[in-house]
Amino acid sequence: MMKTTPPKALAIRINLVFLAFSLLLYSILLLCPSASYYHEGVHHKMENGIKKKLMLEEPTKVSSRRALIKREKPSFLDGVGRGMRIGMVNMDDEDVSEWKAHDGQVIHVSYEQVSELLEWKDLFPEWIDEEEEADGPSCPKIPMPDFDKYGYMDMIVVKLPCKAPNEGWSRDVVRLQVHLVAANLAVRRGKLDDKGRMRVVLLSQCMPMVELFTCDELVGREGDWWFYRPEKEKLERKVSLPVGSCNLAMPLWGKGTYVV
Question: Which domain of life is it from (predicted)?
Answer without folding.
Answer: Eukaryota
